[in-house]
Each structure stands twice: as structure tokens, then as C-alpha cells.
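>> Question from a student workshop board

For tomorrow's exercise we were told to take the sequence and the ligand below, predict the bound structure, and bring the output to class. My setup keeps failing. Could a helper post the expected result so I can at least see what it should look like? The ligand is S-adenosylmethionine.
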Amino acid sequence: MTELQRCDSIGAPPVPDKAAFPFVKWVGGKRQILPRLLEHVPSQFGRYFEPFVGGAALYFSLRPERATIADVNTRLIRTYAGVRDRVEEVIALLERYPYDETFFYEMRSVAVDALGDAEVAAWFIYLNRAGFNGLYRVNKRNVFNVPFGRYSNPSICNAPALRAASAALAHVELRNEDFEAVVAHAAPGDFVYFDPPYVPLSATSSFTSYARGGFDADEQRRLRDVALALKRRGVHVVLSNSSAPLVYELYAEQFEIVEVSARRNVNSVGNGRGAITELIIR
Ligand SMILES: C[S@@+](CC[C@H](N)C(=O)[O-])C[C@H]1O[C@@H](n2cnc3c(N)ncnc32)[C@H](O)[C@@H]1O
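>> Workshop helper replied:
Here is what the output should look like for this input. Compare the format with yours to find the bug.
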């Protein structure tokens, strides 16, 4: 087992005062296309909703005063609650967690759902940072099953970044529900950003199983219908998705589609890495 290190020293990049960034790595994270996404944020809006929150890149960039962020991943939402409400406990726990393969596999098998939000957050952040490629994947029994990631100096705990995220989350409403329920009460003038699991570009790039149950073509159609109903009642709606034919088909008529280029680490691009086209839909 490696020597314990102070939280702030484990490969942590400096954090500018008050700046808050995603503290979990998430497949499909939006930092790549964030500048393009920001061009489509309305200049004024009421409440902000992000129902597929993942790493929350747009939320942390906007830091809206009134906001609801949500996801069906219960442990992810409990992680946000832990960082929001008990950040010093989260940091204290992470300080005790070494970057070590044996320890990683012990953590993986902890029955985490029975623990409090601070413990869930530390567990989630540790496995996200020390696990292979920051993936979140569980088996049918909801047991996390991503292997140990081999890094030279991983940033497992960045205390200033966690404190900044905690401050940025202070007034947020967190919900662990399906997207349709989350936006049911969005009012005219509110702003909803949907970043669903993307439609796979090919049969091999099936990133649809973020949560148990997956997100298939029928779910994509249900999302389009919800987006359309929101738009019709005066809610600002922006979505992102892949450039798969189904996405063009679903949004061609009532929405504007903007193509943007993103570098992605996915199998759909020959060598597994390269520039691909993604869509911003408004
Ligand atoms: C593409 S990721 C979001 C990426 C994120 N916006 C970011 O910037 O990192 C999609 C998210 O949708 C969640 N999800 C899947 N099905 C859902 C549903 N029916 N309702 C709400 N969230 C869902 C997954 O758990 C996952 O976190």
C-alpha cells in the first residue's frame, strides 16, 4: 500500500479562486464543446434545469442562481449532495484513500448504498479518479466493475476544487429521477439543457448503458417529444447528441440543428480517438 498523501498534493492542478469545474470525469463530458454550447444559452432565463447532469460541465460554467440538476444515477446524485453539504468530510475521507490497486478493489466491493452521502461521494470520486478512464459501469447487481486505472500521478483529491464545487452547488436542487419528471414543472422563460446518452454512431459505439436499463431509440423519441412540449410552452430548450441519422430525423422539422466538431475517445473513430461531429439542437 502506498504512503498516504495530503489531499491537495495528489496530482492536483491549481484551482483559480472561486472557479468550479466538474470534479468527476464522465463519458460524454461537455468541456470539449462548452464554448459552442455557451453560444446557445439564452441571455436571460428563469430557472435552469439539467436533467442528464453527468459531470455537470454546463452547470458549473453557468453557475445559475436558481437551478435543478438531476440524473437517474442515484450514487452520482448522492455524490453531489455529499460535496454540497459535507465537503470537509468528503475531503477528510479522500485524504485517507491511497492510490493503490489492492485498496481500489476493496473500495469497489464496499456496500456503499447503506452509507451516508459524504461516504458515497468519497467512494464515487475515488473510484472515478483511480479507475480505468474515469468510467462508471455496474453489473446487474449494481456492483461497480471498472478495473483499476494505471496512472503515474492521478488527481484523486483536489480539496480546493471540491470546496469550489461545494460553493457552486450550495443552492442547487438535486433530483434523482427520470428526465421527464424533472422538467414537468418548467415554466415559460426557464432554460432546460438536455445532454442524454448519445445515439450510437455505429453498432460498436454503444454508449447507451450509463444506467441500468439503457437509453434506446424509443427513449430518444420520448425525449424529443418532451423537448417539443417544453418549447411549445415557452421554455428555452437546448440539447446535444451525436450526429447519428436518427438524431437528424427526430429534430429536423421543429428544431435548428448546429454541427460542431469534438475530439472524442470513442471506438466509433477508427483508432478510437479523433474529431467527430456532434450536434447542438435548439
Ligand atoms: C451524456 S451523460 C451526461 C454528460 C454530462 N452532461 C456532462 O457534461 O458530463 C448522460 C447522463 O444521463 C443519465 N441518464 C440516463 N437515462 C436517464 C433518464 N431516463 N433520466 C435522467 N437521466 C438519465 C446517465 O446516468 C448519464 O449520467
